[in-house]
Design brief:
The protein is of the alpha/beta class and 257 residues long. The chain has helices at 15-21, 26-40, 86-94, 126-136, 141-152, 167-180, 197-209, 223-229, 247-255, and strands at 43-55, 58-71, 75-79, 101-106, 110-114, 185-189, 215-219, 232-237, 240-244. It has a single domain, classed as 3-Layer(aba) Sandwich (Rossmann fold). β1 (43-55) and β2 (58-71) form a beta hairpin. It starts with 14 loop residues before the first helix and ends with a helix.
């Protein structure tokens, strides 16, 4: 399996429902409230991330001391010119690549990079890939198959080996499979939608409208989407980064790079 390992989902009890269903003494009530507050404070946290590669011309540091966090429901944009380290950072966050040093703490149930089709076993059919990945992530197989079959609109191709798919078909399968799992945080690396205009709108609605309550880490050159949906932005330059809470100011800084 070439996706990152699934994060451990931490579930809290519904305090209101639990209390209304039976009496609770003060200690139990306090414990549940503490658990609920802890759940609300869960986040994806990066601490002092460094990524280096050995190259023919020597050691190259792609990311240098990157730190930020994103809580449940928040959306952060990652801005930077080509080669700034954006995609590398997303791969590290998703567990596709390890950092050279630093730590990524994943307390939210997090997706692989959306649209990432590198984890498919190409000799297996699309259907068998859905079944396999559903079991790995603890999702009801029948529900996942039904969702992907409806959303991806691949028809009979879903029953064929993935190696026979066009790049567009693979992207549809990957996008649909990502949405079929109830992730709390989505990693988005440029691929926000695929296909024609109608399918593009379908992807946009599924991600930004139906899942607006989810956290997102977003790389996109579409600044209108970033302005509309993101709460803050990390601006990268030559591997170094700074987080801005003012989206418009972050975009202004990015435009001068």
């Amino acid at each position: 399996m070439r996706f990152g390992l699934p994060a451990i989902r931490v579930k809290s009890k519904d305090v209101g429902t639990w209390i209304s269903s039976r009496p609770a003494d003060a200690l139990e009530h306090h414990a549940l409230l503490s658990e609920s507050k802890a759940a609300q404070g869960r986040s994806i946290t990066l601490s002092k991330i460094v990524k280096e590669y050995d190259t023919p011309i020597g050691l190259r540091r792609v990311l240098d001391d990157i730190s930020f966090d994103i809580k449940k429901g928040e959306k952060i944009a990652i801005l930077g010119k080509n080669g700034a380290g954006k995609s590398t950072l997303v791969k590290i966050i998703g567990g596709v690549e390890p950092p050279t040093s630093g730590e990524v703490r994943r307390d939210l149930f997090m997706s692989w990079p959306i649209g990432f089709s590198g984890g498919f076993e190409t000799t297996m059919s699309g259907l068998d890939n859905i079944r396999f990945i559903s079991r790995v992530y603890g999702v009801a197989v029948d529900d996942a198959v039904a969702f992907v079959e409806d959303f991806a609109e691949l028809g009979r191709q879903l029953y064929m080996p993935v190696k026979t798919y066009s790049s567009g078909m693979r992207a549809r399968l990957a996008f649909a499979l990502t949405l079929a799992i109830d992730f709390e945080c989505f990693l988005i690396d440029e691929v926000i939608a695929v296909g024609d205009a109608r399918f593009h709108q379908k992807c946009f609605d599924a991600l930004f409208v139906q899942r607006q309550h989810c956290a997102m880490i977003l790389i996109s050159h579409d600044l209108s989407i970033i302005r509309q949906y993101c709460h803050k932005a990390l601006v990268l330059k030559a591997g170094r980064g700074r987080v801005f809470d003012d989206i418009n100011f972050a975009i202004d800084i990015y435009s001068t790079l």
